[in-house]
Amino acid sequence: MSGHEGFTEFVAARGASLFRIAHLTCGSRDEAEDVLQSALEKAYRSWGRLHAGSDPEPYVRRIIVNTAISRARRRAILRIFLTDSPPDTPAPDSLTGVELRQVLITGLRGLPPHQRAVLVLRFFEDLTEAQTAEVLRCSIGAVKSQASKGLARLRALIGADLHEEELPHAER
């Protein structure tokens, strides 16, 4: 099987999961589509260098997260010049699962890119701290710290007393 066929099969098998990571990391469908497209382009260019027996998904996840963080930084710099007030976010009281998920996604948009990436990988993709650290190329301690800070900031943004067990985990 050629590299092109292997890449095509990988994208067909894991594309939905990769899009979910991009969407949750970016916060919008349009931005996620752009980030995923860029990430898959970068992965395809490196596809021949990947070890034939290794799992390419962590590598592609890392590209998605790094691309999303880079784009978020550029937007943040522009936002500094355009506005000095944060966006409004809805406050959840007694929400259904779907409504809570939407409030969480809205809250994720208000987090710094690294905290958002950690929360998405840990709680939406259900990765362990070690797996998250591997994807982000940081220490497990950094993952723990960013998750703690991210959850605290997310609680403040959405005005809820969130606990880890309330966060939606990936469907398996």
TrEMBL record:
Domain of life: Bacteria
Domain RNA polymerase sigma-70 region intervals: 16-76
Keyword Transcription regulation applies: yes
Gene3D superfamilies: 1.10.1740.10, Winged helix-like DNA-binding domain superfamily/Winged helix DNA-binding domain (1.10.10.10)
Domain RNA polymerase sigma factor 70 region 4 type: 104-154
Pfam families assigned to the protein according to its UniProt record, in alphabetical order: Sigma70_r2 (PF04542), Sigma70_r4_2 (PF08281)
Keywords: DNA-binding, Sigma factor, Transcription, Transcription regulation
Similarity-based family: Belongs to the sigma-70 factor family. ECF subfamily.
Protein name, as recorded: SigE family RNA polymerase sigma factor
